[in-house]
Specification:
CATH class of the domain at 89-342: Alpha Beta
Strand content: 5-15%
Number of strands: 11
Oligomer: single chain
Order of helices and strands: HHHHHEHHEHEHEHEEEHHEEHEEH
Largest sheet: 7 strands, mixed
CATH topology of the domain at 89-342: Aspartate Aminotransferase, domain 2
Structural class: alpha/beta
Number of helices: 14
Radius of gyration: 23 Å
Length: 456
């Protein structure tokens, strides 16, 4: 029997276009309760085949109200970008082509596309020419991969082969981390068997930047990895990477640049090229569909030593780049295709314009909210805005109210012991109108919650 591609794919395309076309005016937050979603989508295990087109129809109907419009220009939570038309279309094709992008032999075109995109990325970020690149799921696995390479390299220099002998009996590794690091660093160290007690927190300044004067005394004490940051998750602040790299000449310096690394495309981050590894997300400021992370190392041999695998049933060619040599996955989708399309469509100038516009919109947020009486807690230097809307209780209630109201969506956080709303402008479509509408919604929610407090 011939498969019916047109029915389910046609229905999916129609639903997708309706969703995308309605995105600018769609309520940003989810409205359906989990119980309602389970009622619509659940039921007994199907005992036989179903009609593919009807299944897609039922799926699209069933999730309605349970989708957060993260692609909206008024979604400002969790540093999540949207998806540009070229990257979304390329990602659809990657799904249709269904390439297992681990080996060149299994997916030649996917491997070549990733190799080209990798070269472009190294040039865009101003990294050393020999830098190796891995396409991973996100910042978590980018940090994991980079730190695996770092673990191999610092122990190799201490006379220990961790890939062959493991960690039992190995020299202790000290990992110097900023006190305001992202939790994915801690988690990566757990995954790597180093544990979180290997970390030595380094004092930071008022914006969360690692202080070189606090780092210096901790260096030179055996195998050491320094985890710096390009883009504090709350403030957007970038560590003084040039000073850090100049101090840590005997350590491996890793830069967690989940979103902040993209800012160097337009305004180079001083000293960025002196580090040993870098991590970032393409599904943040490059605005490609989830999931898409990137890891870079200035030491390809360490990168491959930590990640590569050889087996009799695999086909390798010394002249070809096998993607599995640079990431922890064996079988994986060809996520580099969307990255390639995004870079082709935007070019360097388009990426710079996207980042600059998001930063300008963040500044617009800060100015208007400050004028409305809010307390902006950070220096708005990138795309992050920390806002306090009264005391802790009122701030948290306003965050919830904004999420439920639907005009915009921002997340809450705690900064220096105080509750705050965290606004992250990361979407390529966010405009001044989106910011103005969102500020109006936030101030309305503040007034409503203040009135409730007075009545209570």
């Amino acid at each position: 029997m011939e498969p019916d591609w047109e029915g389910p794919l046609g229905e999916a395309y129609a639903r997708a276009m309706t969703y995308l076309q309605n995105l600018p005016e769609r309520p940003v937050g989810a409205s359906a309760a989990a119980s309602e979603l389970r009622r619509r989508l659940g039921g007994e295990l199907p005992q036989g085949p179903g009609n593919p087109t009807q299944i897609i129809e039922a799926l699209a109907d069933g999730v309605e109200g349970g989708l957060v419009a993260t692609g909206s220009g008024r979604f400002f939570g969790f540093v999540i970008g949207g998806a540009t038309p070229a990257s979304l279309a390329a990602d659809w094709l990657a799904t249709v082509w269904d390439q297992n992008a681990g080996l060149y032999a299994a997916a030649p075109a996917a491997a070549v596309v990733e190799e080209i995109a990798a070269e472009w990325l190294v040039e865009l970020f101003g990294l050393p020419a020999q830098t190796s690149v891995g396409f991973v799921t996100g910042g978590q696995m980018a940090n994991f991969t980079a730190l695996a390479a770092a673990r191999y390299d610092v122990l190799r220099k201490a006379g220990w082969d961790v890939e062959a002998d493991g960690l039992i009996g190995a020299p202790a590794i000290r990992v110097l981390v900023g006190a305001e690091r992202h939790d994915t660093v801690d988690r990566a160290l757990r995954f790597l068997g180093l544990g979180t007690r290997c970390m030595v927190p380094i004092a930071v300044d008022g914006q969360g930047r690692m202080r070189p004067d606090a780092l210096a005394p901790e260096l030179g004490q055996g195998p050491t990895i320094v985890c710096a940051q390009a883009g504090n998750v709350n403030t957007g602040a970038i560590d003084p990477l040039d000073d850090i790299c100049e101090l840590a000449t005997d350590a491996w310096v890793h830069v967690d640049g989940a979103f902040g690394l993209w800012s160097t495309v337009g305004t180079p981050i001083r000293g960025i090229e002196k580090a040993d590894s870098w991590a970032t997300d393409a599904h943040k400021w490059l605005n490609v569909p989830y999931d898409s992370g990137l890891v870079f190392t200035a030491h390809p041999e360490a990168h491959r030593a930590a990640m590569s695998v050889r087996a009799s049933y695999l086909i390798h060619d010394a002249e070809k780049r096998d993607p599995l040599d640079y990431n922890p996955e064996f079988s994986r989708r060809a996520r580099g295709i969307a990255v390639y399309a995004a870079i082709r469509a935007l070019g360097r100038s388009g990426i710079v314009e996207l980042v600059d516009r998001c930063c300008a919109m963040a500044s617009r947020f800060a100015e208007q909210l400050r004028e409305a009486g809010a307390d902006v807690l950070n220096d708005v230097t990138l795309n992050q805005v920390l806002v306090r809307l009264g005391d802790d209780d009122l701030t948290r209630r306003v965050v919830t109210a904004v999420q439920q109201e639907g005009t915009a969506w921002a997340s809450g956080t705690t900064w220096h012991g105080r509750a705050a709303m965290r606004i992250s402008v990361s979407n390529w479509t966010t405009s001044a109108i989106d910011v103005d509408r969102s500020v109006e919604a936030i101030t309305r929610c503040v007034e409503i919650e203040q009135a409730r407090s007075t009545q209570g």
